[in-house]
C-alpha cells in the first residue's frame, strides 16, 4: 500500500476553460474523473515508450459521430492497428458516400419510424436509403476484386473498400492511405456480410478466409517491442485485441472505456485484472479502466493526451 | 392504453415450493419478476405456434455451468438453431474431455492466479491445462478434416468437433447427434481460432470460409414459417440472429435476457423496439426483455416453460 | 489463496423441480447464481449463530408485491429490525386498506397515464385515489396521536399506523403485533410527510423528532451479541443500518442484493468491503453481494433459506 | 414525429480546444454526448425563463471534489435551493476545517486500510481523524445552539454549521453567506446524526423537528413562478425535490444526471417521464436525462452553460 497519496482538491469553474485544463484538474477529483486523468497519463506513457497502439471500438461509436476523430487518429499515425465490428466498416463507407445520419430520441414508436424509412441505433436514426446506396456502391468493388482473385481475407476486403472512398473523415480512407490495417473478426455480421453472401450465391468460388486474418495480426503483434491497447466498449474487437497478444505474453498497456460491469462474466465487462490472469495483459502491465460512455469520455481523454503530447505539431513537423 | 389491468398480489412463502409455482406467482409481481413471467408466456406461445427457436448465448454462459441445460434443450429439440461465440465451442469441447472449471472469487490477485495456472472469467477459474488438452485433442481432428477437403465453413468445423466428443452434457455432442446447426460468426476469436491459424501456417490452403455460413442461415430462416429467438446476453450472436432474419422481414417473437442498458447505443443493449425499426423484428411481433443475469434468470424462465408445456413428457412420447 | 476449490457442474432440468433444489444446484454454477447460493448459506449461518437480523429495503420492493413476504418474515420473527423508506410505510398502509396496484409497462405515455389517475413506478401503476384514501385514513390517527402527546419519534408514528390496520400481508400490522421496530430515517420524503406537514400547519406544536430514533437503534444494536443485515437495494435504509452499527464496531454478517455498481462512489453501490474500511462491517465479518434485482433474487434466496432451516415448522412448534 | 432532424457531424480534434467548443460539438454527436448538450440548453432555458433552480446531489459528489464548484454555484446565485444528504454537510464542514481527503483505488485490502485510519468511498479515502476533528468542532456549536432554543429544524442546524465556517470552497459557508437554504431530509443518517444523537443523550429536550422543514420547502416552491431542478444522482434528495413540487403541480424543468437504470423501479433510477405520471414534473415540462457519472458529466454541462450565459460576468456586473 502506498504511503504518500495525492489529495482531493476542490474543482473551480473558470470562464472559457480549455479541455486540457479541466481534464488536468481531474487529477485531483475522485471516482471516474480521476480515471479519465489516469487514462490520459497512461496513453501518454504508451506513446513515450514508443508502444504500438491497438485501437478497438464497436460500430456504435462510428454511428455516434466519433468517426471523424478516429479517422484523424489514423491519419496522425497515433494508432497503429484498428479492430472493430463490421457495422463500423459499412457505416463509414455509407457516410463517405455523403449519406447523413440523424439525431433522434431513445423512446419513439419504432414501427412508425421504420415506416418512415429510418432505422434506430439508440438515439440516432439511419435512413434505409443508406443501405440501398451501400449495396449499389459495394457491388462493383466486389466484382473488380473477384476479377483479381477468388479468396480474400477480411482485412483485404476492408482495404479494397478504403481504396474506393475519398473522405478525410473516413476511417477506411485514412487507413488505406496510411497503411493502417483494420481487422474485423466478425465481418459477416452486418450489411457488408449480406453483400458478400449475396455475391457468393452467384460466384460460389468467392471466399473470405478468416483464418489468415488471425495469423496476420498475431505475427504483427510478435514484431512489436511494446504494445498498448485503447479499447472503447467491449465485444469481439476487445477480446480479439487481447487474444492476439497472448502468444507474445500479453499487452504492455491497456486503457478500457466501458459501460459494462464485470458481474455477469461477459467478455465486454471483463476487467483488466481478469486479462492478466490469462496472460492477455502482462502481470506488470499498467492498466486503467474508465466506467463511462465513450461518446463523452473518449474525446476528453484523447484531446487531453494529444494536447499534452503536442501530437499534431509533431505530426506536422514529421511530415515536412 | 389497456383498460383492464392485472393487479399486484402480495407474494407469500410456502414451504418446499416448486419453481413453476414461484414463477407462476411472478405474474402478480412488478419490475423484473413480471418480465420473467412474460418471457415464459411468450416462449410457450412460440412453441404452441410451432415457431422455430433460434437460441443465442455468449460463451460466459457455457463457462457458468448452464452448458448442461443448453445441451438438454438441443437434445429435447426445444431449440432449432444455435448461435454463439467461439468460447462456447472450445469450453464445451474442453469439458467434454473431462476438464473441470472451478468456482472462485471476483476479486483476487490475478497475477498470482495466473502463476497457479488458473485463468479467470468473473468468479470462475479455468485451468491453463485445459487449453493444452484442447490443443492436443483438436489437432488430429483438423488433420482428418484437411485430408477430406481444404475449405470449410464455420458450422462444418463445429460439427466435426461435435462428431468427436461423447458427453450428454455437451452442446457440440447433442447438436451433432440431433442435427442442430451451431453458428459462430466470429470463430477465430478464441483458442479454436489460434488452433485454426496455427494449422493454416503449416497448410496454407486450409481455409475457413465465413461467407457460406451466412448464406446457409439466411436460407434456413427463409424456409421457416415462424421464428422466435431466445437471446441470452448480447454481442455478435444476438445481432447475427436478428440480422439473418432481416430478408424474411424479421423475427416473429423475441425474448432477450440481458444486463446491458440501451444508453450507449451498443448492439448488446439494443432493445427489441430498436430491432423493430430495422425490420429485424416484425412490427407486430411479440417481444419481452428481462433485465437480469442469465445464470439466475434463464433457469427460472425455461424450467417454468418446460414444466407448463410438459415438454419432457411430450419429447419422450414422440421418441416412442 | 484457497488450495481446494469447488468445481462447476452442468445444470440439468428436471420436471417440477423445487426452488430449494434449483438454488441448491446454484452451488455449482458461476457468476450471480453462486452468489445467490452463498447469500443463502450466509443467512443460514446468521440464524444458527443467533444473530439479530436487520432487514432493509427501499419502497419499490413494497410496490412490487414483495410486501406479503416481508410481512411474513416479520410474523415468523425471522427478522428483528426493519429499516425502510417512507414510501414503504404509506404503500403498505394503502394496500392494507384494500387499494390495489396494477401491473403495467415501462414505456407508456406518462402524461396520458396521469390523466387516467395512474402514477407510475417502473412497470407498476398506483391509482391516485389510493392517496386520497390515504389522507382520509391517516388524518384521524394523527388527531388521536396529537391528543396524547405533541412530540413523536418516526418509529412511534409508524407504530401508530400499524396499530390501526389489520391485514396479515401488512408490514405495519405484523411489526406492531410482533413488536418489531420499523425505522424510517427520511420519514418526511413521501405522502406521509405531506400529511405530517399539513397537520403541523394547523397544530404548530406537533413535532417529529428524528434524533431520538437514532439513539434508539444505536442502543438496540449495542445490546445485540451478534448482528447480520440483509440489505435489498441501497439508499438511506442501507446506510442507516450499517451506520447504526458503527459504535459496536460493525455488523457481523452482511448480505447485499443490489443493481447499483460501485464506480460512482454512491452509498447505494458501495461494496461490503468499503463498509469494512469504515468499521460498519467487522474486518472478520462474512459478507455476500448478489448483483441482481430483488423481485427475482430475494424470493429465491429467502425461500431456500427458510426451506433449509425448516423455519416455518420451528416457528409453529415454538408457538405451541 | 419531427419532420426535420439535425444531422450527425463527424467530430474533429483541434489543439487546445475549449470545453465550450467541445460540448458545442456534442450537439451533432449521438448517445450521451447529445444528452450533455441538451442538458446545457435546458439549463440555459431555465435561467432565461428566470426559473428558480433546485439543485440536488448526494454526498459522494462532495467527497469527489465537486464541492468547490457547488460552493461557486451558490456564491454566484446560480442555484436557489440545495437538497442533499447529510454526508455532504459533514464532509463540507470537515474540509472547511482544513482536512484533506486522498485519492486511492477501488480495489484494496479494506481491513488494512481501516487499520491505517482510512475509510473508503469508491476510490477516495477519508482519514478517520477527520471525524474526530468533526466531533470536536461540532460540539461547541450544538451547545451554543441549545443555549438559544431547544427545538430546531434540519435546515436551521445546517445554517448554524455554515455560520461557523469560513472557506470560499465551502457549500455551508456560501449558503449561509448568500441566504441559500440547504435541505437535508435524512439529517440523522451520518456522523452529524451521531453527534446530534449523542448531544440529545445529555440534553433530552434537544430536538430536531423534520416536519417543519417540509412545510418550509413546499411553501417556498409555491411562491416560485417557475422551477427547474438539476439532479445529480438519486436517493432522497432527488425524490424530496420533486415531491416538494407536487402541490404546485410539479417542476417546470428537470435535468437528471445519473448512473441508475429504471428497471428495478427505484426512485434513483426513475425517469423524468415517471415523474410526469405523478405530477412531480409538469406534463408540458422539458426534461433531459444524461446517463453518466456526475464527476465527469456535471463539469462539462455546467461549464458550458456558464460560458454561454456569460454568467460570471453578469454576476460581477450585478454586484457593482
Shape of chain A: globular
Number of strands of chain A: 11
Structural class of chain A: alpha/beta
The total count of helices of chain A amounts to 15
Would you identify the CATH architecture of chain A?
3-Layer(aba) Sandwich
What value does the average pLDDT of chain A take? 95
Strand order of the largest sheet of chain A: 7-2-1-9-10-11
What Rg of chain A do the Cα atoms give?
20 Å
List the quaternary state of the chains: homotetramer
In total, the number of domains of chain A comes to: 1
N- and C-termini, Cα separation of chain A: 48 Å
Uncertain stretches of 5 or more adjacent residues of chain A: none
The H-level CATH homologous superfamily of chain A, spelled out, is Deoxyhypusine synthase
Instruction: Give the strand content of chain A.
Output: 15-25%
User: What is the class of chain A in the CATH system?
Assistant: Alpha Beta
Order of helices and strands of chain A: HHEHHEHEHEEHEHHEHEHEHEHEHH
Helix-strand blueprint:
4 copies of one chain form a homotetramer.
Chain A: H1 19-25, H2 32-48, E1 52-57, H3 59-64, H4 67-75, E2 81-84, H5 86-96, E3 102-103, H6 110-115, E4 118-121, E5 124-127, H7 129-148, E6 151-152, H8 154-163, H9 171-177, E7 181-183, H10 191-202, E8 207-208, H11 211-223, E9 227-232, H12 235-243, E10 251-258, H13 272-277, E11 281-291, H14 294-309, H15 311-319
Parallel strand pairs in A: 1-2, 1-9, 2-7, 6-8, 9-10, 10-11
Antiparallel strand pairs in A: 3-5, 4-5
Helix pairs in contact in A: 1-14, 2-14, 4-9, 5-7, 7-10, 8-9
